[in-house]
Each structure stands twice: as structure tokens, then as C-alpha cells.
């Protein structure tokens, strides 16, 4: 078991009248709110069915307010000794995620690199989604096949090597609802070349529906190694700009299971319409709605992509780029100047 740290007193009693008075006021306020909380719980026991939901919300607010300013609560949270089954710690965890920069960084990259609106008109994350891939390979070719690489957390918007993403990522989440709800996972590439239109289309790399999550779930996402729709590793084509690989973890409507068969999307990976998919299955991305999580990173072509085409996709590797300009003096330049 992890060692439980004792709560130290910042200033010994009697050394600072202001500090002692602050602790007294906090404790007094907590007792007052707990008394009010007991009254709400008594009302819930006698309330009519249509009144219970409103009282439950008030109960949770009072439960948080009665504990959030206590030194012990703050100490436990800062030192990782918290339990997300308790409303006060869920509140503090969500507040930290929203205000300390983690959410801001993801949203900055998503909007700065035009994932929104290229994939979706808008998205308002409600869960913290973290992505881990293999660390970069050693420079030594001798060590590449002899060193076991660790999984490292990826910074949103950063560049990864195709070699790092050949295997599916390990995904961690922090969700802020105590009850179990189901989510659907999508991994997309909005920068897949479309030769017909001389533009780009979306490629579906991975889909897995009905992933159960709750605030007490701390393990990696429970996704089988080979889900029904196999993971296709990122393979940015030679001659194309960087690709914006995006993972969406969307809460199912009502948090319930969906009768979604990934197999129907297996043969239609190219040209995947994210907006139509969201509309068809009723996912809500509106502000204040259930939302979900989002994450993105970037990749460019490397020699590993050729191997992915040959051994994983078993397809001829395309090559893109601008047509070379016609040089009217090409033949002259190849002639010997002096004979």
C-alpha cells in the first residue's frame, strides 16, 4: 500500500493569530454547510420523484463546498491521496485540468492546426484524454532491436515518428462522473490525399465503440489488442505535408451502449465523414453537453512508411509531389560542351 502522508501544520498554533483565525473560520463554515447538507438529505428521503434530481444536485454542491477549503482536503489532493468517487476530489481534479493549462494546450493545438473545423464544426472536451506511444528509437541500429522502449506521454500537437506509432497507443482518461458511461473511440487522419479532387479526405484508422468509463477507472482504456476494426498505423505519404492524426473519444448518447457495428466502416475507411457519423449516432458536441475527449499529433513521411505499406497494408506505396517543370534546354544541358 502507498505510504499515507501526515498533514503538517504550516504554522505552529499560537504563532500567527491571523492563521489560527483563518483555520477557525474555515472549520466553522464547513460545519455550517454540513448541517445544511444533512437537512437536504433528509428532504431527499421524503421528496417526490420529480423533486429528487434538483435536490441531488444541491446535495453534491453542498458536499463539495463543505470540504473543498479544508486543509486536509487540499493536502490530500496536492499529494495524490484522493479518491475520485468523492465529489470534492472530482471537482478539484476537473478544476486543475481546466485551469492549469492541460486543456488549454490541447484546444490551442486543435484550433491552431485547424482540426476544428476540418473534422468537426466544434468540440468542447469534458474529459482529460492522455496518449502514450513508444519512445523514439535509439540512433544506433544495433540497439534498435535490442532495447525495449518505454511508453511516453505525448504532448498535443507534437511530431512523432511513424516508427513510434506502428502499435496502438496506450490511452488514459480522467472522467468526472461517478457512474459508468459508454464512449466511442475514433482515430482519424484528415490529411489523406484524394487524387480525384487533388485535395484531401479523411481516413479512419481506428474505431471502437462502447468503452465503459467512470471516475474511479484509472487503468488504460480497456480496448482489446485487435478490436473488430483493426488499428491501421499512421502512414503519411511521401511528398505530402505533415498529417494531423486525431483521436476522438465521444460519449455515447445518454451514456448507454450503441448498436454500432464497426465492420460496416471497415471497407469505407477512405472518405470517412466524421460529421455524418456524429449526426447519425446522435453524439452531442455542444457546449455544456456530454462531449468527450480529443487529442492530436503530427507525423511526416520516413522510410518506415515504405515498410508499413509493404508489410502491414500490403499495398504499393504512392508518391506525391509537384510535376517537374519542363526544361526546354534540358537536352542542351546534357550535351558535352567541348568535343
UniProtKB/TrEMBL annotation:
It holds the Pfam family PBP. This is PEBP-like protein. InterPro entries: PEBP (IPR008914), PEBP-like_sf (IPR036610), PEBP_euk (IPR035810). Signal peptide: none annotated. It comes from the Eukaryota. The lineage of its organism: Eukaryota, Fungi, Dikarya, Basidiomycota, Agaricomycotina.
